[in-house]
Amino acid sequence: MLRKLYDWVFSLARSKHATPAMAVVSFTESSFFPIPPDVMLGPMVLARPDRAYYYATVCTVASVLGAILGYAIGYFLTDVGMMILTWLGKADTFEASKALFQQHGAWVILIKGLTPIPFKLITIASGIFQFNFALFLALCALTRAGRFFLVAFVLKTWGPVVLEMVEKRLALWTFIGLGVLLAAFLAVRFI
């Protein structure tokens, strides 16, 4: 079963619809969707290393555009933004987050924009707290480009070796990946 899923992901990564699908995932992840674009970017770079930086560019542009939507949700549709934050389990930390944003907003965006923490938390909160939009946009572009180009570089450079290791021990790497995802989910939920 794992082999079929693995083969399906790589066939999707090679399909003509992969780039638009990745752009949609990247856009929506910045505003409301829970799945990060890395789940598509990684296999796409591994399938076509020659297009690694093109894929990183598409991911970055779509993510920044999605960040604008997330900001708008927080700014203009605060109730919807709070509903999304509640769904993500972050509404109870609203006051602490507000104080943190008021003191260190730029650093919050820079640090969290580079991590696997769902970016929508940052974009919606930035809108709710009415963070300076021009600075928000610049920081989003910087952090998202940094993250996606780093992923593209690492996978283009060392991907084939890693891919060979993964293919030899697919079940082991699947469990490791699930463990990392679970740890990231728990970190986001309780941090």
Write the layout of secondary structure elements.
Layout: H1 2-14, H2 18-29, H3 38-47, H4 52-76, H5 78-87, H6 94-114, H7 119-128, H8 133-168, H9 170-190
Transmembrane segments: 52-77, 172-190
Domain VTT: 55-155
Pfam family, one: VTT_dom
Based on the model shown, name its key terms.
191 residues; mainly alpha; 0% strand; transmembrane
Mean pLDDT reading: 83
User: What is the percent of helical residues?
Assistant: over 70%
What spatial form do the alpha-carbon principal axes imply? globular
Radius of gyration: 17 Å
Q: Name the helix and strand elements from N-terminus to C-terminus, one letter apiece.
A: HHHHHHHHH
Number of domains: 1
Protein name: YqaA family protein
Keywords: Membrane, Transmembrane, Transmembrane helix
Short description:
With 191 residues, the protein is mostly helical.
How would you describe this protein?
This protein is an all-alpha fold. The chain has one domain (2-190). The protein has helices at residues 2-14, 18-29, 38-47, 52-76, 78-87, 94-114, 119-128, 133-168, 170-190. Helix 3 packs antiparallel against helix 4. The model has no long low-confidence stretch (mean pLDDT 83). Keywords: Membrane, Transmembrane, Transmembrane helix. The chain crosses the membrane at residues 52-77, 172-190.
